[in-house]
Write a structure and sequence with these properties.
The protein is an alpha/beta fold. Helices cover 49% and strands 12% of the residues. It binds flavin mononucleotide.
């Protein structure tokens, strides 16, 4: 049975939570899953202090000892992950933002490959599309495969929605769940897009050339065999993708050499 982990970032168990419950119910109609709710407010997750330890030395050097690793383990073991948030001042609420900050090292050392991602945003008026874009971008950097997000606009705490309003919400949840279920069952190790491939090759070239081999990012890429591999995971690339990968490396090398020369001149 597939495991779904839903991270709920509202400070209260209300509209967003109810949408999440409806999402689980709908998903059950497609496929029975092990569905775990993580209510961020109930977790012990201190605010990032900006020490840079996780980014440079490694996440194990974070000064906080709290629920962060427990949450990461849940994501590591999931087949699908949902981040559900209300729109707060055109952004995710602080609870979710702190969670993302605490996991910021995953931008440097992506790990959630072959896992589907769904962003759910509830809002009263406007701004949810940008939040969806933001969460999908974060998820993509972290390795997830994105399904199209679900953005629902309705007034909070009203029991007097018209039947057609209620039907619209139900239809939107159904459509989002159908798409998420599709991604959940996509074949593993999908061929990356040109953009993702280009970025991977550019990043790995820059890590290989620019950073000390004692630093965590270098070690992580090295241990995963990413300095030699085609992509983050085994995949067969066609001719055009191989050419794009090659070009990215040439550009990466050029940028790194230029930077080194400029630094040498300064010294
Ligand atoms: C502090 C705060 C800020 C909000 N900011 C926005 C906003 O910028 N745009 C919007 O459309 N709705 C905004 N809302 C409305 C909520 O996003 C919306 O009612 C949401 O469904 C509430 O979800 P919840 O019940 O899970 O907290 C805001 C609500 C609060 C409490």
């Amino acid at each position: 049975m597939k495991k779904i982990v839903a991270i709920m970032g509202s400070p209260r168990k209300s509209e967003t939570f109810k949408v999440l419950e409806r999402t689980q119910k709908k998903l059950d109609e497609f496929e029975k899953t092990e569905f775990e709710y993580i209510i961020l407010k109930e977790k012990n997750l201190h605010a990032c202090v900006g020490c840079f330890n996780c980014l440079t030395k490694g996440e194990e050097y974070c000064p906080h000892k709290d629920d962060r690793d427990l949450l990461i383990a849940l994501l590591d073991n999931a087949d699908g992950v949902i981040f559900a948030v209300p729109n707060y001042a055109l952004q995710v609420p602080a609870l979710m933002k702190n969670f993302l900050d605490r996991l910021a090292f995953v931008f440097h050392r992506p790990r959630f490959f072959n896992k589907s991602f769904l962003a759910i945003i509830t809002q009263a008026v406007y701004g949810g599309d940008n939040i969806a874009k933001y969460l999908k971008e974060v998820a993509s950097f972290w390795g997830f495969t994105n399904a199209q997000a679900l953005v629902l606009t309705f007034l909070p705490e009203t029991n007097d929605r018209t039947l057609s309003e209620e039907q619209k919400i139900e239809n939107n949840i159904s459509k989002a769940v159908k798409r998420f279920h599709g991604v959940l069952n996509h074949s593993k190790n999908m061929v990356p897009s040109f953009g993702k491939l280009f970025l991977f090759r550019l990043v790995r070239t820059s890590i290989k050339k620019n950073i000390k081999n004692t630093l965590k990012d270098y070690k992580y890429f090295n241990e995963n065999g990413w300095f030699e591999s085609s992509y983050y995971y085994p995949v067969k690339l066609g001719l055009s993708k191989r050419a794009v990968g090659f070009m990215a490396e040439i550009i990466g090398n050029y940028i790194s050499d230029k930077k080194k020369k400029e630094l040498a001149k300064k010294e």
